[in-house]
Amino acid sequence: MSFTIVKEATPRLNRSELAVPGSSPKFFEKAAKGPSDVIFLDLEDAVAPDDKEQARKNVIQALNDIDWRGNGKTMSVRINGLDTHYMYRDVVDVVEQAGHNLDLIMIPKIGTAGDVYALDMLVTQIEQAKGIKHRIGFELIIETALGMANINEIAKASPRLESLHFGVADYSASTRARTTNIGGANAEYGVLTEADASGKRDYHWGDQWHYALSRMVVAARANGLRPIDGPFGDISDPDGYRAQALRSAALGCEGKWAIHPSQVDIANEVMSPSEKDVTKARRILEAMEQAQKEGRGAVTLDGKLIDIASIRQAQGIVAKADQIAGR
Ligand code: GLV
Ligand code: MG
Question: Quick one: which ligand is closest to 165's CA?
C-alpha cells in the first residue's frame, strides 16, 4: 500500500440512477415508488429554456412534499452548467428552499477543479446560512474533452465529491466522436483481421468508449469516488443496455444511469454481485478466518491459493451484498 490512504466517499447504493425531467412532475410519484437507488431531478438538458424556471419550482416542491427518502431513495438535482445564467439560481433556490431534503447535486459539463471549488463555496455558504446539518455531496459528469483532460485534479477538488459519471452524449459532441446511438456500439469502430489461409477476414467490433470509461474509473477509484456509467439512448433496446452495463461493471463501474424506468431493473441486476459470487466471497472469508484460528498463514479454497487481494475483493462483494440486503 502507498503511504497515501484513499478515503472512501460517503457509501451509497448507486446501482441505478434514474433521470427524471424537472419539467415533468407527473413522473415524480412513480419514480419515488420505483426500484432505482438514486434519482436525479433534472434542471439541465431534459428541460427546455422556457421551462427552466417552472422546473426549478417543481423540483423544490417535490423535494419537500414527496417522501423520497422513505422510499429508500438518494436524491440528487442536476443543475445547469456553470456557463449558463441558470446555474446560480438553481443552486441558491434549490439548496435554500429544499436543501434539507437533498443528498446530492449533480454538476454537468465540469471542466476544471475550479468549477468544483466555486460550487463548493456557494453550497457551503447556503448550508451554513440555512442550518443544513448534513453535507450535500457532489456528483460530477465528465462529458467534455476539457473535463476528461483535467479529470485527476477534478476528482480531488472537494471533500463533497462522491461520484464521477460518464456523460457519453455530450462527450461525443465535445470530442466530435462519430456516433449515432447514445452510449451504444458503433459499427465503424472495429478492426479487420488479417486473411486466414482461405483468404477469409473477420470484422471485430470494438468498444469506442473503453478508454474514456477506463480513465474515469481509475480517476474515481484513486480518489475514493464511485464511477458511474451514463446514459444509453435506445430505450427500446434492453439487450443493448444490458451489454453496455455489463462491460461498464466489468471495468469497475458501480452503477449506470437509467433514462427510462424500464432500464432501472436491468441496472440493479447487473450492478449487484451475483448469488454465486457472494457465496464464493463468503466462503473465502470463512476459509481465511479458519486459517487464522489455526495459525496458518496460507489459505486454500477448492485447491487454489487465496491471496490478500482476493480477500479484499471478497470483502468488497460481501459489503455490497449486505448493503443491498439492508436497503
Ligand atoms: C449526459 O448528460 C450525457 O451528455 O451523456
Ligand atoms: Mg450531458
Answer: 1
